[in-house]
Amino acid sequence: MKEKTLGILGGMGPEATVYFMRKVIELTPAERDQDHIRMIVVNDPKTPDRTAAILEEGENPIPVLIRNARLLEDAGADLIAVPCNSFFFFYEEVQRAISIPIIHMIEETAKVLDKAGIRRVGIVATKGTLKTRLYHNALGRRGIELIEPTDIEGIMRAIYEIKAGKKERARKKVLEALQELERKGAERVIAGCTEIPLVVSKEEYPIVDPMEIVAKIIIREIKGADLKLLD
């Protein structure tokens, strides 16, 4: 049977897309090139800003998202991963436009936390992602309390600094938020923006990385590898 091909709807941002691809490669049990997963990537940084659209301050990204998802399907992808949390506000409309599944990163993260028995979790995310309440709802349905940091505007500035390559200054703000959430009683903290793992590693702080969870789910499905979804 032909092995499935992964499509990646990327560019939101481009460095997070590369990080996600690297995760898939690093976590795949492989001894040679041919053991790795086929990936088709649309890395489109021209996609309109998702947070601006959610806050009703910017262009609607749905036409671009649908166009790019169809490009992946037409190119032969069997399933799609999207390394962008705020994308999932637009998920249903994009999913309806294609016939292959998009892995729902937020729902999958909530399932993993629930299975691990975690009941209080923090999040560091954009204003747009928080406004959608997608994490609040996915976790709340499973009886998990979500704790937000105090300085959301500061987190937003840090996220855009990461996108602009000013990582050291942003990293300090992200670490402050992680420590605050821990003081508030969070058992774990979700990296609710795909830029967060670019400045804080799991070795340094035990963040829950939704991109890593999705990478492992994909490897499980395509390769049958027995990977633990949450370390």
CATH class value of the largest domain? Alpha Beta
CATH topology of the largest domain: Rossmann fold
Which CATH architecture of the largest domain is right?
3-Layer(aba) Sandwich
Low-pLDDT residue intervals, each spanning 5 or more residues? none
* Counted beta strands: 7
> What is the CA-atom radius of gyration, in angstroms?
17 Å
- What fraction strand? 5-15%
The helix count comes to 10
Give the helix/strand layout.
Layout: E1 6-10, H1 14-27, E2 39-43, H2 50-54, H3 62-75, E3 79-81, H4 91-96, H5 105-115, E4 120-124, H6 127-132, H7 134-140, E5 145-147, H8 152-163, H9 167-183, E6 188-191, E7 207-208, H10 210-223
Parallel strand pairs: 1-2, 1-3, 4-5, 4-6, 6-7
Helix pairs in contact: 1-10, 5-7, 5-10, 8-9
